[in-house]
Amino acid sequence: MTALLVFLGAAVGAPLRYLTDRFVQSRHESLFPWGTLSVNVLGCLILGALAGAGTALPGHVLALAGTGFCGALTTYSTFSYETMRLVEQRAYLSAVLNAVVSIAAGLGAVLLAYAGTAALVN
Q1: Tens digits of per-residue pLDDT, 13-60?
Q2: Quick count: other Cβ atoms within 10 Å of Cβ 68?
Q3: What 3-state DSSP class applies to 20?
Q4: What is this structure's pTM?
Q5: N or C: which terminal CB in the chain sees fewer CB atoms within 10 Å?
């Protein structure tokens, strides 16, 4: 049953990642991967909120929304590839900014959502 929930969450998260990435990136003419940054920060917000809810959420919700949906929505491999592509194109500042902003924004999003949800639940 859990594997099916993960599959269902991923079936929604993966297309949403693609569509959101294309939507965001089409509004920017720079090399910077704004679409990937956007989906990764959104996924961090959602996962932070789920984690902040703690035991208030049943395990099947975490499997569906956390592992399945967020796992398919976010993309560390694309982030890494796009950062490497920026280095190959000698856009060194963009590559460093992508790495630093992605990590800082992702951690910040998780912390913010976790603290907010934990405060509401407790």
Answers
A1: 999 999 999 999 999 999 999 999 999 999 999 999 999 999 999 999
A2: 24
A3: helix
A4: 0.93
A5: N
